[in-house]
Amino acid sequence: MSLDAAGQEIVKEMENQLNRNYFLKGIKVLFKQPLALVGFAIILIQIILAVGANWLTAYDPTAQDLSHVNLPIGSEHHWLGTDNYGRDMWSRLIYGARISLIIGFTSVSLGTIAGTILGLLAGYFRVLDGIIMRISDLMFAFPGILLALLIVAILGSSLVNVVIAISIWSVPSCARIVRGNVLTVKKQEYITAMRSLGAGHLRIIFKHILPNSLAPIIVFGAMHMATAILSTSSLSYLGLGADPATPEWGAMISNGQQYMWQAPHLVIIPGIAIALVVFAFNVVGDALRDVLDPNMNIDQL
Amino acid sequence: MTTTLTAKETLFEVTNVKKYYPIKGGLLRTTKGQVKAVDGVSLQIYPKETLGVVGESGCGKSTLGRVILGLEPLTDGQLVFKGQDITHYRASQLKPLRKEMQMIFQDPFASLDPRQRIGPAIEEALIIHTNLSASERKKRVSDLLVEVGLKKEHYYRFPHEFSGGQRQRVGIARALTLNPSFIVCDEAVSALDVSVQAQVINLLKRLQKDYELTYLFISHDLGVVKHISDRVLVMYLGSMCELGSVEEIFSNPLHPYTQALLSSIPRPEIRKDRERIKLQGEIPSPANPPSGCRFHTRCPLAQEICARKVPEYREVKPGHHVACHFA
What we know:
Shape of chain A: globular
Distance between the termini of chain A: 44 Å
Strand order of the largest sheet of chain B: 6-7-8-3-9-10-12-11
Helix content of chain A: over 70%
Distance between the termini of chain B: 43 Å
Number of strands of chain A: 0
Oligomer: heterodimer
CATH architecture of chain B: 3-Layer(aba) Sandwich
Largest interface: A-B, 33 and 40 residues
């Protein structure tokens, strides 16, 4: 039997021993927290609505019907009513779910990836630390929404620019969190052990420091989803994000507030949607922080 | 790469090694002073021997180990490994030598990546240094696991699933992966229970015989050092006090510091003639070491000359070196 064949047999044998239950155990822990479960349910519903928007409504969210304006909740054919142009509120709500999810996800991903790379570099290489952290200090000097306003004002108002603005805005806070964590991890003895084995910087950074810094990054991502969705709506409400015809929740509130007394559902429905989603992502972020604590032995729970 | 060494050839030649850490402070972070962690250590390490290094906490023994392996740049001195002067080697030049020199760490809880399964952790050295295929690597790792007294089923376990002794065995397997000739054991058994210590020490001894390893065994535990070492170096405050064979050091200690250390070993028998030498005071700061002989502030034999003149480190008997005016 050649070494390779023998090796492969051992691989098979050992893989049978591989405990694949860590992921499932993590999920179980998550689901023991009722609030987290509610948060997950809300996010799941939002995802279902966003993905299935095409099939869940018969109406185009931008199609106007001036003969059925400001219909209240519970009207025939329009169970959530219509807005001041006769557009179906239900289709606008679920297409809005799609928009806020896409914007939240892209801006958080872009911001977190860039922030993580910068944070890793700043934490690991002392030469870069000063430069990267002073630039992020500079960005911290602006209030977040003001920075986003500034960026949108420069680039022009559109949803793509909102994504860019929110990503840029989340880079420094992410970089700071990652850097702090890298500084702690870097001093651990297992990093010295890797150096004594002759591992290069890239291997140490991406194979050992990054996995050990992942927990705060994931928590940051989940929490920041909430912030990103809220900021998108805020910018759209201020007229700097989506144009008024787009079914974006912030734009819907902005559009509906002039009819607040005649048709309160124009403001209340998107308002509740924003509040629920922001709440859900915050709660899930909290729960993830508990689950991902590296000092916690999952088996003991 | 493998050069055969004859009996009394040196494997590692350490000449007058110094490691100072700058103390920074003040408005402009200027260097205000230096902590002299290791201050002028010279020794030869011979193939297949175990050189024990003892001394109290903060005497620079761990720093010495790290400097020798090139994990910390040295301030001054020379390191020659197998005839190569590695003093000023950069990381890329040291990489091929990493195969030959390894380290076993003190704290088995801190020296393993908590997010990496132990099999891949041991395998990583093979990925860095060899071109073995994935299954060849796994075969080698499972052999190593068995070699250090673990099971190959442990391959996919996480470090937190092991006891301290088992983790230290993982650390040993990792150090052995590349067939090194020289291993620095930095307090390798200090964090373990006494019963587990004995098992790990016996494992280290067996591996030394099987793989012709050379150990630099750093410890503050004189009993352990006596058990495992061929020669012993006693350090105090970054400098060398005494170096000799284990029999010489333990039966005929010449330096008053060695004598004090030995008298502190607890013994089972009750003997009237045994008197414990109690050292007065604290270990002085290595940032501002005493003049002359570093030990004179606490030495029971100290005379006027000790504060004035640094004692010469000399060979009093073949292989027995001591740095004391009165030895």
